[in-house]
Amino acid sequence: MKKVLIVVPAREDGTGRFLKPLMTPGSAMAVAGFTREVADQLDLDIRCVIWDEHVKGPVRSDNLAGYDLCLLTYLTPSRLGAYRVADLARELGVPTIAGGIDVTGLCRDGDQDQLMEHFDAIYSGHLTVASWQRVLTDWRNGALRGNIYQPGTGENFEFVIPAWDLIDTDNYIFSAIQSSAGCPYDCEFCGVGLVAGFRRVHLKPIELLEAEIKHLLSGGAKFLVDCSDCFGANLEHYRDTVLPLLKETGIPWATEISIPLLVGADGESGLLQEMKDAGCVLVYIGVESLKEKFGKNKLNLVERTIERCNQLVVLVLVSLVLDCEADATAKSVKDTISQLLKLGVHFFQFSLSAAIPGTRLHAHVIAEDSLLTSDPTVYDGLHATIGHIASPQERTRWLKYGWRRVYGPWNLARLIAWTKTHQPELLPILVSTFRRIQAGASVWKRAHRTRQSQQTDN
User: Fold this and answer.
1) In terms of domains, do 278 and 347 share one?
2) Which residue segment(s) compose the domain that 180 sits in?
3) Contacts of 204 by beta carbon, 8 Å cutoff, 6+ apart
4) Are residues 220 and 323 in the same domain?
5) 66 found inside a domain
6) What φ, ψ does residue 157 adopt, rounded to 5°?
7) Where would I find the Elp3/MiaA/NifB-like radical SAM core domain in this sequence (predicted)?
8) What is the pTM of this model?
């Protein structure tokens, strides 16, 4: 039997370790699913193990001992963590393969050489059964070293049932399913299209989604998050198959969706009512900015969306990129937050622009020579990494203001009281999420102070 360790590396600055993760590690579970399927086809006896450093702590030598292959999947802020694991594996003679959005983005930018200094092989793009057969065949034949793999011509996006049996869902706040991959939009800062294809949407076969949900329900799942990149992107498919399936579960769920799909171009149609009827209790919408030049939604449509969600008692989580406007100031940021709070937004995700490798934003800032740092650990939306009229220190203060304003004691008490009245079944999840947000903010503040101190010393 061959043993394969699939690692989800944590960040090297420590801000990602030992905080209860919000979402189950979907990419690692998918890699395990593809590995199992291909192993059956190649008649390989393989045992997969998932090691999520956010749950189990850093991978050490004794954790890698006895494994025949180490696979790594990660986002840009965890790149150095992935290098640490890969370098350790190389010392022990365990071959490594890395893939995911960061790897694909670096390859797209022509920066794959730095990856090959650490990994034996890399995979750029989306996994397919045929391409993964080529990878595992080379591994079996000892011909892995130095190869860059990608899907072959004509190999379309594929889904497998994620390896849910390899993780303990109690270690995560949310169990995340995925009914589709990809997004019909092409926001310049977004890295989704790097793997799924730009302006492409791929629908998971309903039989796979049904089997996945059935497994989670049998394990006692009380709440689901559909982490599709753009829920409802194919209206007919979602109306005819996905929504009836979610309704049949009888448990509440949440998802990310664009405003035009949620309420239609007129603000009165879309999927909102049908989603509510199927058990949806929270929607995550990317507003980013209230200025139509920067946001992809008209202000009156944003207002009507929030109004309708409140009428139907559906919680609203809005994302804002505080420095996406070139002329953003402390006053404009505070005014935007105040305006959305008055409209009735329940939750916010605040971030700063991050030029993820491979995105149009990254190419833009490189061309303008406005990238402030190449340190991947700060490409997390919580640090100023792109030039702006406001200093990095000032933009950090915007983030702190948003967190205090929205997640301060008074507003938390208001949200908890609202939930008790309208969605009491969500109260335990809400409290767990708030605790995770507060713990994460505390860790981030400590790491930020440490980084500032180190910069001062230098």
Assistant:
1) yes
2) 174-426
3) 159, 178, 179, 180, 181
4) yes
5) yes
6) -60, 135
7) 173-380
8) 0.92
